[in-house]
Amino acid sequence: MSNWEILWSSRDVFLDGFYNTLQLFGISAVLAFLLGAALVFLLEGSRPRLRIPLRIFIDGMRMLPFLILAYLLYYGLPSAGIRMSAWYAGLTALVLYHGAYFAEILRGCRTTFAQGQVEAAIAQGFSLPGMFLRIILPQLILKTRGLMGNQLIILLKDTAFLVIITVRELTAAANSLSSTYFIPMEAFIVVIGFYWLISIGLEQFIKLIGRYGAKRGFENA
Amino acid sequence: MDSSAWGLLAYGAWTTAWISGISIAIGVILGLFVALLRVARIPVVHQVLGTYISLARATPLVTLVLFIFLTAPTMGLDINRNVAGIIALTLNTTAFNAEIWRSAFNNFSNEQREAALAIGMTPWVYFRRIMLPQITITSLPGLVNEMSFLIKGSPAVAVIGVVDLARVTNRISAVTYEPLPPILAAAAMYMVLISLLVWLQRLAERKANRLAV
Amino acid sequence: MPETAAVSIRKLSKSFDGTEVLRDVSLEVKPGEVVSILGSSGSGKSTLLRCINWLEQPDRGDIHIDGDRIGVSDSGKAMSRRELASMRARLGMVFQGFNLWPHLSVVRNVTEAPIHVLGLSKAQAEERAMALLEKVGMVEKRDDYPYTLSGGQKQRVAIARALAMQPKVMLFDEPTSALDPELVGEVLGVIKDLSKEGYTMVLVTHEMEFARAVSDQVVFLDKGIIIEKSHPSEFFVNPKTDRVRRFLELEAPVV
Q1: Is the interface score ipTM higher than 0.95?
Q2: Alpha carbons C89 and C165: distance in angstroms, whole number
Q3: pLDDT, tens digit (0-9, with 9 covering 90-100), for C182-225
Q4: Backbone phi, then psi, for C202, in 5-degree steps?
Q5: Averaged confidence pLDDT in chain B
Q6: Closest chain B residue to the Cα of A61, Cα to Cα
Q7: B123 interaction partners in chain C (CB closer than 8 Å)
């Protein structure tokens, strides 16, 4: 059997890993985005006392390697009495970490808005959450889509760190196949191909949003 | 944590520092060359480098580190863990740096070139004395930003057993059975390192803004 | 023996994407002469100036600087970069947009080419630069960076930078068009001083009064063709063509 045939016969291992990576990526992308949006909403200023701890959280995450956060949740928290499986620890780490990055991207863009829009919305009787959800957030998404897309690709790549805390994702699949059959080259080429495919898919998706945005005069990609 | 734990931590920090440092130094220079080749638009070379950049940006560092460490022996190359780690980090950061350099080249004003040619500079003197110094200043904020991304990604080398600042926390807790303190200490050390780079990036931005006249 | 022209342009033609911007343009500039090129925008006057130092390459015709042909070497082939650079070093050019190098201080903008093109020592170049900065009134700003200067100051530094190469001919491409009105005077003043010192100059400008005051010869370009070439006393008072008369009525209502 050629090396490629060996790989084909163990395609289930790849597909499992691929599925696991996609699942981790999909769930954490959605949750991290929601967390980021929520953080920016809280920073809007209804509760000034929250602002400092939120900023510390956001800046703290941005100065930390992702793996250290994963270590903290998986190895560190049990000694504080909180125990999670590797998968949940990994997911939580992805959400917290990238939630902070999303928040920073949105916040940076939010500061460039004219105050007039908010006043117009409030004058029309929008509540603060309603205004944020219907007026601010859609614009933020259109304007920051390029940065958000980059961040999504970083998120995708960070899922691979979870192999170190024993999550069975895509890179783990390549690793185990290559050590079982001693065919690292082929195994990793397949896996890198998978990552490449998802990244290209993400870039296309962002371009699609861009076309939607361009129709409405949001030109800054 | 006792003094031997702190000693290990310092050792891990040193490993992170030198492995990242070497990768950054090579990556910045190599990125400049890749960008120059891309700007020159030499057929085939242009497409090959474009594919490399696209691939390198999509490949997780952990995956790249494993790939290089595991496949090198099958190609008859005998490389140790540290070298494999440095190659992977360098391949990764070079791709990002190349894009930073390239955008600086593309945004460089043609008027400056005309002023240099009109005064009698050869293209080489113009590149060395006028273009490169300015490109360096305008690229610096992006390059420093990429440096902090590299350091945040450097724990990927832990996957092949390099004992860096991240992995050393496992070593310590294997003895002390208290994982939290070394992880928190390592986190603090990373934060100091990254905030130093963030500060440098701000300085670089201030300098770069002066050129935008 | 006849005097060699500082600039001699013969039957120059140039097209961009099929549109002819210069057609059979011929012009002689004698040493010490000041020639103003006038014309409405799109008449090809900036292109003509830029051809003189080969920033644009003409399709046909030739240009000699002080008797030496630019752009084409004796063997008939295109000049090497090095040959071209040494030809250009004999021409000083001042741009509409100043084009100072923002990473260098004022004095280093002026010394850069003398050091790295002419091979002067740093001390020699600085001595030369200081004398020129004195001439353009920018000595106090010697260590400042371009971003701190006003447009008029930038242009005066740019003039000093060009002069530092001790060029045979100075080329000015609309040197005051990018300036606020109140800053135009200081730059024109410097150029006027140069004309009194006997510099050979070719300038493209919209400042009619100024062209009238400094020029020995005025050239009017229309759609890539020279339709008038005369002394300013003649040109501004007694234009030969309707085209120029209309132009002067619009641009210089004073006369």
Answers
A1: no
A2: 7
A3: 999 999 999 999 999 999 999 999 899 899 999 999 999 999 99
A4: -120, 125
A5: 92
A6: B191
A7: 81
Confidence check: pLDDT of C245 > 60: yes
Mean pLDDT computed over every residue of chain C: 92
Q: Name the residue of chain A whose CA is nearest to B186's CA.
A: A68
All residues of chain A having their beta carbon less than 8 Å from the beta carbon of residue B184 are 72, 76
Q: Which residues contact C60 (CB under 8 A, 6 or more apart)?
A: C11, C12, C13
Q: How far is CA C57 from CA C22, C27, C84, in A?
A: 12, 17, 12
**pLDDT tens, residue by residue, C23-37:** 999 999 999 999 999
The closest alpha carbon to A201, from B149, B54, B63, belongs to B54
Task: Write out the residues of chain A at the interface with chain B, using a CB-CB cutoff of 8 A.
Answer: 60, 62-68, 71-72, 75-80, 153, 156-161, 163-164, 170-171, 174-175, 178, 182, 184-185, 188, 191-192, 195-196, 198-200
Q: How far is CA B191 from CA A52, A66, B145, B188, in A?
A: 18, 12, 14, 5
> What pTM value is reported for the model?
0.86
CA atoms lying within 13 Å on the CB side of residue C15: 5
* Angle B37-B43-B44 from CA coordinates, rounded to 5°: 90
Tens of pLDDT along B62-72?
A: 999 999 999 98
CA proximity to C158, closest of C97, C103, C207: C97
